[in-house]
Amino acid sequence: MMGKILQAVRDLVERMVAIDETWERIKACRAAGWATPPGQPDVSPTHEALQLLEHFLEAGRAEPTPEFEAFRKRAEAAAAELEKALRTKSGTAEEAFTRSAKLCSDCHAATRDEK
C-alpha cells in the first residue's frame, strides 16, 4: 500500500513539473502576442494549450483528494477554454490565460503551500 501511495505522489510531482514547463512555454507565446515565440520555432500556442489540457486530464488518474480534484476539473476546463480560444482565434485567450493562472495559484495555496 505504501508503495502505491509513494508512486502516486511521484506521478503527481512529475505531472506538476510537466505542467509548469508547459505553462512557461504558454507564457512565452503570450509574450509573443499569442504566436510562436522568437527563437522557439517548435513552440505553438495552440499545441501548448492542448498539452496543458492533456496534463490536467492525466492528473485526474492519480486518485486525488476531493479538494484537489475540484481544482483539477476547473483547471481542465480553463485549459480547454484556452486551447479553443487559440484554435478558433476568438479573442478570449487572455481571459482564459488569466483564469488558468488564478486557478493554479488558488490550488497551490489550498493544497500545496504551507498555511
What does it look like?
With 115 residues, this protein is mostly helical. It has helices spanning 2-31, 45-59, 66-88, 93-112. It is globular. The chain starts with a helix and ends with a helix.
Key features of this structure:
about 120 residues; 4 helices; mainly alpha; single chain
Topology diagram in text:
Blueprint: H1 2-31, H2 45-59, H3 66-88, H4 93-112
**Low-confidence parts, pLDDT < 50 over ≥5 residues?**
none
Mean pLDDT across every amino acid position: 88
Number of strands: 0
By secondary-structure content and strand pairing, the structural class works out as: mainly alpha
Write down the overall geometry.
globular
Strand coverage percent: under 5%
What's the helix-strand series? HHHH
Helix content: over 70%
From the alpha-carbon coordinates, what is the Rg to the nearest angstrom?
Answer: 15 Å
Number of helices: 4
Cα distance spanning the termini? 28 Å
Question: Biggest β-sheet, characterized?
Answer: none
Oligomeric state of shown chains:
single chain
